[in-house]
């Protein structure tokens, strides 16, 4: 029941942001990543989203994506895919999301070449077998009703030798099930990291700006919900990461055949 309520809350909140944010103040919707050894030089427009950008950078630079065909499943409002396209030089990028308004926003807002956005269900992707060199999925799969189907779809659409880059969180008691789902996909795990502490540090550092954004976009009577969604310091969501009730993991996986 708690899982269903959590997913319903996130679904409503994503819809709300897509409706209320007319000036593209919110183009990233992940919790972020901070590491003392990661010192990115960012363009001015990217600096306000530094910690969310750093999560994408950490994930996407874990394999060579130069001149590769890349798909992001769960692209949201497209900020991460735009950053990858502008700075890491893939051959092509496609973003898909179940939220129709998010896809409409992306197609209107991002004008870079070699990108496209479509509405699609992660558990039934509308692509041919062996279509992509890299599939990226960041902080999205925790909302899927059957994530095991998604992981099998990733295996299907990856080219032989292709790479799946995956970063997301689960309750601590769900990690074993996540590992079983990933193993059943027939992809091979090349690397696995627990990055919960990096996410907590990012949440701490990003909290002041996220508090300002909540006050700007959200009516006062909904601001506590907004803070919880943004996981600012002291909120129930932040505390779950801080106390490791939520575990945030990062995987690099390969399709061998």
Written overview of the protein:
43% of the residues lie in helices and 21% in strands. It is an alpha/beta fold. The chain has a single domain (2-254), classed as Rossmann fold (3-Layer(aba) Sandwich). α5 links the parallel β2 and β3. α6 (147-157) packs parallel to α7. The N and C termini lie far apart (39 Å).
Concise structural overview:
The protein has 257 residues and is of the alpha/beta class. The protein has ten helices and seven strands. The protein has one domain: Vaccinia Virus protein VP39 (Rossmann fold, 3-Layer(aba) Sandwich), CATH 3.40.50.150.
Task: Output the keywords.
257 residues, alpha/beta, Rossmann fold, seven-stranded mixed beta sheet, 7 strands, globular
Please specify the SSE layout and strand pairing:
Layout lengths: L1 H19 L23 H4 L2 H11 L8 E5 L5 H9 L4 E6 L2 H10 L5 E5 L12 E7 L8 H11 E14 L3 H10 L3 E7 L1 H22 L5 H8 L5 H7 L3 E9 L3
Parallel strand pairs: 1-2, 1-4, 2-3, 4-5
Antiparallel strand pairs: 5-7, 6-7
Helix pairs in contact: 3-4, 6-7, 8-9
The largest beta-sheet arranges its strands as 3-2-1-4-5-7-6
Q: What share of residues are in beta strands?
A: 15-25%
Oligomer: single chain
* Rg, alpha carbons: 17 Å
Mean pLDDT: 92
Number of discrete domains: 1
Helicity, as a percent range: 40-55%
């Amino acid at each position: 029941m708690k899982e269903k309520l959590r997913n319903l809350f996130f679904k409503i909140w994503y819809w709300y942001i897509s409706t209320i944010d007319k000036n593209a103040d919110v183009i990233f919707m992940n919790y972020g990543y901070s590491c003392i050894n990661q010192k990115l030089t960012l363009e001015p427009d990217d600096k306000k989203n530094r910690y969310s950008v750093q999560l994408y950078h950490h994930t996407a630079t874990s394999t060579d994506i130069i001149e590769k065909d890349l798909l992001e499943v769960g692209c949201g409002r497209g900020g991460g895919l735009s950053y990858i396209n502008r700075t890491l030089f893939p051959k092509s990028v496609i973003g898909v999301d179940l939220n129709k308004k998010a896809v409409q926003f992306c197609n209107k807002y991002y004008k870079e070449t070699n990108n496209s956005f479509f509405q699609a269900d992660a558990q039934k992707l509308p692509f041919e077998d062996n279509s992509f060199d890299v599939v990226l999925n960041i902080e999205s799969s925790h909302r899927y009703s059957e994530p095991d189907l998604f992981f099998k779809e990733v295996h299907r659409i990856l080219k032989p030798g292709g790479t799946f880059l995956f970063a997301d969180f689960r309750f601590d008691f769900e990690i074993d099930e996540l590992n079983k789902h990933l193993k059943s996909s027939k992809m091979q795990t090349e690397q696995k990291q627990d990055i919960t502490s990096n996410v907590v540090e990012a949440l701490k550092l990003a909290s002041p700006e996220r508090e300002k954004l909540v006050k700007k976009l959200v009516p006062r009577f909904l601001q506590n919900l907004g803070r919880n969604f943004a996981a600012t310091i002291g909120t129930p969501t932040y505390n779950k990461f801080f106390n490791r009730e939520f575990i945030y993991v990062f995987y690099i996986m390969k399709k061998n055949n």
